[in-house]
């Protein structure tokens, strides 16, 4: 089918599902520190900050980036769960595309200014934004994911051959100076301030950087969460590029970055939200929609890990559901209270296993990129 995806809730026909193959290690460098924090709304201080992961003198200096090996058992179980997601989607008559797997011998990505271990194309929602008939590769916010969209090239080429537009936003140099330092002043309480950002001959100042998961798609409207100057520059670019085709709405500091475990449109007129506070950040027309406030998660709802296992994702990660259509939602099978809340509101829930969602930083929405849905350029905010 031709690329056509304007929203997150009309009937899903084709989707890209990420790959976890050969996820060897995670790099905890400046870009990781600036990105990973608790969200600005909701459960502040609900889980340990990065400094709590490696306390006291054991914590490594910023200029010696810490490579964190992924434990084999967790990776094996993650791969098992991702394949279960694929099977579920196929059983619901959704065509599932997969990226190229990360080769085991592929070690590092390098630029003139830095090196980083390559991570697999798992959370494919982050570095690509699908708007109608256009693929937009977004400028990465984590160095280790700089070339992640290259693993999706065969899928993108197929859609391009069928007539899709295909655009790449400006690629950042990603030196230490590329990241907005003012972000720290208003960041969530547990964001990790870089120890000593270093100058580079490749500095160009604060650059365009944003993830697709900062955005909420509603037909002809695109809502963009902005929490720093990097995001604001990216929104400038989107406004100019999309002028006349989409209306771009800015919201400010709803979260540190991604919003798809904070506010989720389940169908026209109904939002799943983390808390009532979320409504204060949204456009006025969205505040009139019906809301389902997610039950508060408990730490015991999740697998518990050893002290040296970083847990990037918020405990609210299970709000990161995937709508198959306006009545059907894929939900983590461990979230009994959320399943009950959705069923009470008339949704058909498809429970799917996903054990290590906090450890690997993604739910069903993060792991997928919907490329063909039934909806079009409707005006949901009029």
Structural description of this entry:
- With 382 residues, the chain is of the alpha/beta class.
- It has 8 helices and 19 strands.
- The chain is globular and about 55 Å long.
- The two termini are 29 Å apart.
- The model is unreliable at 38-64 (pLDDT under 50).
Present the secondary structure layout.
Elements: E1 12-17, E2 25-28, H1 30-35, H2 50-53, E3 66-69, H3 72-91, E4 95-97, E5 108-110, E6 115-117, E7 128-131, E8 134-137, H4 153-161, E9 165-168, E10 215-218, E11 221-226, H5 229-242, E12 247-252, E13 263-267, E14 270-273, H6 284-287, E15 290-293, E16 322-325, E17 328-332, H7 336-344, E18 348-352, H8 357-360, E19 368-373
Parallel strand pairs: 1-4, 8-9, 11-12, 14-15, 17-18
Antiparallel strand pairs: 1-19, 2-3, 5-6, 7-8, 10-11, 13-14, 16-17
What are the key terms here?
382 residues; alpha/beta; L-arginine/glycine Amidinotransferase, Chain A; 3-stranded mixed sheet; 8 helices; 18% helix; globular
Instruction: Give the topology string: H per helix, E per strand.
Output: EEHHEHEEEEEHEEEHEEEHEEEHEHE
Q: What is the strand tally?
A: 19
Mean pLDDT: 87
In percent, how helical is the residue content? 10-25%
Main sheet attributes: strand count, strand direction, barrel closure = 3 strands, mixed
CATH class membership of the domain at 12-264 and 368-373: Alpha Beta
From the alpha-carbon coordinates, what is the Rg to the nearest angstrom?
19 Å
Looking across the biggest beta sheet, what order are the strands in?
Answer: 4-1-19
Number of helices, counting only DSSP H or I runs of 4 residues or more:
8
Give the structural class.
alpha/beta
What is the approximate shape? globular
């Amino acid at each position: 089918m031709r690329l056509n995806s304007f929203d997150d809730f009309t009937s899903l026909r084709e989707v890209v599902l990420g790959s976890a193959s050969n996820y060897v290690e995670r790099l905890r460098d400046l870009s990781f520190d600036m990105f990973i924090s608790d969200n600005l709304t909701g459960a502040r201080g609900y889980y340990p900050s990065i400094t709590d992961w490696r306390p006291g003198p054991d914590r490594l200096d910023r200029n010696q980036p810490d490579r964190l090996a992924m434990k084999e058992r967790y990776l094996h179980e993650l791969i098992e769960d991702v394949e279960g997601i694929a099977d579920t989607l196929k059983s619901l008559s959704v065509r599932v595309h997969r990226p190229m797997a990360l080769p085991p011998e592929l070690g590092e990505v390098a630029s003139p200014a830095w090196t980083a271990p390559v991570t697999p194309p798992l959370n494919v929602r982050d570095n690509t934004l699908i708007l109608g008939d256009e693929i937009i590769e977004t400028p990465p916010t984590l160095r280790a994911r700089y070339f992640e969209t290259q693993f999706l090239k065969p899928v993108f080429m197929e859609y391009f051959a069928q007539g899709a537009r295909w655009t790449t936003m400006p690629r950042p140099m990603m030196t230490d100076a590329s990241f907005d330092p003012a972000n720290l002043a208003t960041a969530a309480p547990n964001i990790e301030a870089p120890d000593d950002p270093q100058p580079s001959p490749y500095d160009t100042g604060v650059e365009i950087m944003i993830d697709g998961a900062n955005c909420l798609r509603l037909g002809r409207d695109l809502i963009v969460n902005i929490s720093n100057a990097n995001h604001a520059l990216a929104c400038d670019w989107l406004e100019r590029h999309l002028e006349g085709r989409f209306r771009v709405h800015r919201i400010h500091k709803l979260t540190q970055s991604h919003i798809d475990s904070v506010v989720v449109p389940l169908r026209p007129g109904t939002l799943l939200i983390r808390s009532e506070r979320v409504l204060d950040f949204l456009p006025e027309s969205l505040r009139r929609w019906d809301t389902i406030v997610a039950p508060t998660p408990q730490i015991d709802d999740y697998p518990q890990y050893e002290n040296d296992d970083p847990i990037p994702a918020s405990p609210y990660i299970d709000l990161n559901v995937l709508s198959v259509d306006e009545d059907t939602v894929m939900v983590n099978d461990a979230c009994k209270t959320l399943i009950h809340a959705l069923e009470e509101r008339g949704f058909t829930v498809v429970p799917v296993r996903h054990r290590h969602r906090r450890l690997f930083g993604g739910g069903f929405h993060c792991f997928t990129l919907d490329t063909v849905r039934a909806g079009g350029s409707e005006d949901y905010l009029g």
